[in-house]
Specification:
mainly alpha
């Protein structure tokens, strides 16, 4: 299966931007980003929509850019464990 058939790259890029340094926010913002990705994938008939949503909901907190005062920590948890080269 190839990603261009379901136009995954555009949806994933938007989702990553919503999670990243320019995006972020609180837990509600993370859920909105995850559901937007799911809806886009489902609208394109992508069979990976449900597994991707499940993975985002289970593990997205580790990558999401939480803003101060909106969660237990500030920033992306992954940056505390993995240093950029």
């Amino acid at each position: 299966m190839d990603s261009t058939r379901y136009d995954r790259n555009a949806g994933c890029r938007r989702h990553d931007n919503a999670y990243g340094i320019a995006g972020g926010g609180g837990e509600r913002d993370r859920w909105h980003a995850d559901l937007a990705l799911y809806r886009r994938m489902r609208a394109n008939g992508d069979p990976m929509a449900i597994p991707v949503l499940a993975a985002c909901l289970c593990y997205g907190w580790f990558f999401f850019n939480y803003h101060p005062g909106r969660w237990l920590w500030r920033g992306q948890m992954v940056r505390r464990f993995v240093k950029a080269p």
